[in-house]
Amino acid sequence: MTFWDSWRLVCRSSTLSGNTSELHGLPITTAERALADLASGLNDRDLDRATREALRLRVTTCARIHAMLAEAASRNRPRRLATLASSYARLPIADARSDAEAYAVAVGATSSTSSSSTARTVHRLPTDDAYDRPTRLLAIAPTH
To answer: Would you say residue 11 has pLDDT above 80?
Structure first.
């Protein structure tokens, strides 16, 4: 028997209606609700990354984020999350194989390079704390 076997944490909320799901039989909040709840405690970079990762892992969509924000109480409608969902709605974030690739797609969409030319710009990406030095990454060519 471990320490945690003797403890049970039970949380109840009257504001989660429609914002829950189940994972292995345990009730959890949806990804879009979790992003909204976390937004106030995250800086812009971390909220951006969390949103990209949720979209990339296909645990939510931009449409579901917007729908949840439309129904949420005003205190649970972070403007930054709505802005991110709007900007990512037209990007193939879910097709990225890593956060670095998703970040490159997002940066490429906001860069001033011509969409008709092959990508020539190499962007410096923020690195995780796990890496010793920043890495340079790829050039992404348009798919059309």
So the answer is: no
What would the two tokens of residue 19 be?
């914002």
Give the span between the Cα atoms of 72 and 64, in whole angstroms: 12
Q: Rounded to two decimals, what is the model's pTM?
A: 0.66
Helix (H), strand (E), coil (C) string for the chain:
CCHHHHCCCCCCCCCCCCCEEEECCEEEECHHHHHHHHHCCCCHHHHHHHHHHHHHCCCCCHHHHHHHHHHCCHHHCCHHHHHHHHHHCCCCHHHCCCHHHHHHHHHHHHCCCCCCCCCCCCCECCCCCCCCCCCECCCCCCCC
